[in-house]
Amino acid sequence: MTPETSFSRRRVLQLGALTASLPALSSVLAACGGGGDSSGAVKFSGWDYESALVQANVDRFVQLNPGVPVEYTPITSSQYVQKTVAEFTGGGGPDALYVYDDSLAGWVAAEYLQPLDGLPGVDEVYAGIYPSNAEAMTVDGKRYGLPYYTDTQCLIYNEAILAKAGISAPPKTLDELEQQSQRIKDAGILEFPIGLTAQLQDTWQAWVWGLVYASGGDMFDEAGNPVMDGTDPTAREVLAWLQRAATVSRVIDPAVLQLLPVPLDDAMKAERYAFTIGARYALRDYNDPARSQTAGNLKIAYIPSLDGSATGTVSTTRMYALSKDTEVQDKAFQLLTYLGGFTDGQPYTAKYWFQKKGLGFPFKALEQDPEVQAGIATFADPEIYSGLADAARPRTVVKQPWYSEYENEQQKTVQQILNNQTSPDDAVRSLSAAVASLKQKYS
Amino acid sequence: MTLTAADTEQPPAAAASRPRRGLSDTARAYLLNAPAMIVIGLLVAYPIGYSFWLSLHRYNLKLPALERFVWFQNYLSLVSDPVFLSSLRVTVAFVVVVLGMTVILGTALALVLNETFLGRGVLRSLVLLPWAMPGVVNGLMWRTIFDAKTGALNGLLLQLGLIDSYQAWLTSPTGAFLITAFAQVWNTLPFTVIILLAGLSTIPSEQYDAAKVDRAGVVQRFTQVTLPWLLHPLLIVLILETMNAFRAFDTIYVLTGGGPGDATNVIAVLNVRTVLTYTDFGLGSAYSWVITIVTLVISIGYISTLYQRGRIEV
Fold first, then answer.
1. Which CATH number fits domain B75-306: 2.40.50.140, 3.40.50.2000, 1.10.3720.10, 1.10.260.40?
2. H-type helices in A187-256, by residue range?
3. How far is B78 from chain A (nearest CA, A)?
4. Which end of chain B is more exposed for a tag (fewer CB within 10 A), N or C?
């Protein structure tokens, strides 16, 4: 080998070592930059829903509390979990942040969050919110969140279409729902009166949970063990009803298997369906004359149950939480209290979101607020609206690490029920087996 | 006055006696290529290597506290994972259907476009259009066409009297599978046509003349002349389209989301869902490597079986 070519081996090794050290070097640099904020500002992050309104509310907080500067960072919703975990892993996580109810348990286990028990005002907040929201924010008996917003599933029906078919009241049982739909169908008003969203989605199919909970049943026991193929027949019976309504009486539109939430909303507003099961929140849009052909006709009701005796539904909870390693705990908690607690005795931010965007409020006291009552009355019956919040339960397994995989399996099973690819018995057995497999995977 | 190469060349002896200054040619070559190599290393090699490293970990963002190195456990778990095995079956069927349709339609279209006729240039340009369409847009377009309520296909068939009412085409497992395969083929067919058309243009016309003299019919001319000459272009098509079909995601995700049931839950959809929805980066990376390895093995198989057969001495 000539002196000219001897460069390659030694030099390449040197360069290789240098290149290999780059990631480590960048990590060190990132860690140096990711530490606490020298300005003492509270780092607050959340997914980017209406970030301008969030900023306006945060600005109001800073005006009221000049000694508590806040740096608000909205993060793209679809990447919120990944980015937040990356920030915490890198040692530069936020001081206060939004948390999804299905992320809470994992983030507690990872020691990203600190319990709020014992901090001033927390007991009052938990005493003032609906039980389902309190349950969703509690892990192993400790409270980790203050509520951002909540919503529950309900039956939404088109009163005008029902009236055309000579129906004066919404159904209380699933059989009544099928019969009323049949009457609408027989009257030639709609070929398929029931619309649902049954395309596979990365979010949850809330109406399935709502149907089971409305009949007083569950797919799981409190420990997260499947009961749908054993002690609790509710899920199997609900699936049997779904299959009958989709394939025998054919009152559920076969096209629901390719229907997503926004097209369903459009269809409801265009009077293409008489019934759906959706969030209370949707009614504000459905009954907005500027956006709906049938504004004022879409009404809220309890989800029909198997025998008409039970009342129930499912809820979701979004919350604010406090980082475990925050260096500005007092200030961050002050912000948290403003956002998810009481300000001058009132849940200011919860009311702010309801009035601005119709987001469901977790505080029972707002049921009595005249402004809120008037706001609800523009799109729904306030009594049923509040009754649903009282009757709601969070998903039993929402805190399980395998929940999102189970949700996907459940959605696929519901599709197979709707297009008659499986039987209700096989469906619940398959779901139960899927849970066993997931538990083993995560054990 | 212009200089010729002979004027500028130095005698070998003079070059050898030139004193060494600075870096050698080899070192200079490394130095000049270094920026590109570093960029490629950082942007390509590092992520690929890092994804393999992740695939050896239990790493789910929902359980960050349980992250740990598990060697090849993620890969071994796939052997008994019913979701993965079901997805693999769907993927293999999808690849076979897509490849079959692509090769048959692509060859037929290339043969047509290789003929001389009025408007051939325009048609050749039009055939390219689907290739320019992003997968998501392609998925949305076919979703609109096959829509159960407002789809153009339903409107057309109803007006022709072929159906009595609008049909939900994407709600049956078989319908959804075939429609997603068709949408995938439509998007990637132009590439196949271009490659095969290029292959057809290299076939000497004398071969066809000789075949005609030997009284070979159309079928014989295709099987004895055209097809052997197309083996190399077909090899390229098979390798690239197999890769495309194995990695097909956006069109399927937009059209069906992987449903109904597991009907279109191909491995790329499962992979993306595992990483982004289940936030399981360890297992998701293992899926990615399985796709890569399977594609690599199939490509080697194609090359070993077709390359020698397609060797033609002119």
1. 1.10.3720.10
2. 206-214, 234-247
3. 11
4. N
